[in-house]
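hey so i finally got around to running the thing on that chain from the lab meeting. sorry it took forever, my laptop kept dying and i had to restart like 3 times. anyway pasting the input first so we r on the same page abt which one it is
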Amino acid sequence: MNGIVPTLRAIAEANTILQWFAFLLFTALIPLFSAISVFGIAKTARARREGLDRCFPALTRTAHRLLYENSETQAIGRIALSRYVLPILFLFLLNVLMSMVLLDFMRLTDQPIEHGAKVYILCGGHCSDPDPLRLTEYQTQTFVAAAYAFLGWMVWTFGTIFDRASALQLFPSTFNRLLIRLVISVLVAIVVRHVIPDAGDWAKTSGPGLSFAIGMFPEAGLSMIMNKFHGWLRADTHSEDFHLELLEGISPSLTYRLVELGIDDGVAMASANPFSIFDASTTQMTEIVDWIAQAQLLVLLKADRFHTLQKAGYRTIFDFVRLMNSPNGPDALRALCNWNIPAGYDPVGSIGANADYKRLAEIYAAIGSDAP
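ok and heres what got predicted. didnt touch it at all, straight out
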């Protein structure tokens, strides 16, 4: 083992084949697997939809299905390849640039930051330092933080691409979110570098590891910054909680994929078209309808009452309507979550008049369930 690494290093220095291979490996994997997945999505979506239609023929006549088929913006199942070109191309070019830097390709890293030159995003609060050597060292360490954040992002991106390629679930918005995550990762790593106190030689201790972790998990870096200024950032009030993870059956990883489809909270889920989720995932239609029915109940009752009713066995908007149609429905609701229905307000009538509920109830009945 002791002789393998020096031997490989000698071969690489004597011949650029391994360098070229590493360069192509870094730059070709993302577009290659992306292209395979893009073509596979359409085929998989069509096959799943044909199977669904054969099992539940009544679904083809539902309002949600007609809306979905007539939607000009819907690309899942009828792939618009042009929507993928620019995001994949931009991601490919970024990987080419970073691969050249990481592999020292064309010797781009031979030029150090000029002594005394101030790059304000790199020097931060040290820009006023009169010592040019100290300023240069600080800026170099900040650049190291940004580079390791990029490297962490690249590792996370490869994992995401492989995961999506195996599941055939790559969308144009996936690449847009990858690029946004890249910018956030690098900027958060730079800010964290500026706000943490200097402790010895930062670049040789915990700095690179911390920046690499931020590249993979930028949310943790944002939390670190918020904790640093917790007193300033604390808000007196907060908005209502409609997180997707409040719904049973939705995990954090699934939340990330739903956000790529434009479903970023319970409000969006409550009005979502179940066919768009079905074509863009491996989830069964019955489970998707359950998510939307839960979301409609969440929007109606808000988080606290929603949790209380779910613990009592009333999970969806359909369960709520059945409860309210029962003889002691209002009394049971008052006992469960301390909600007194205002005089003159008919919750069942209001729910029944909602267009999203009507369309969902139509699908609910088409897949063999009894809608109230």
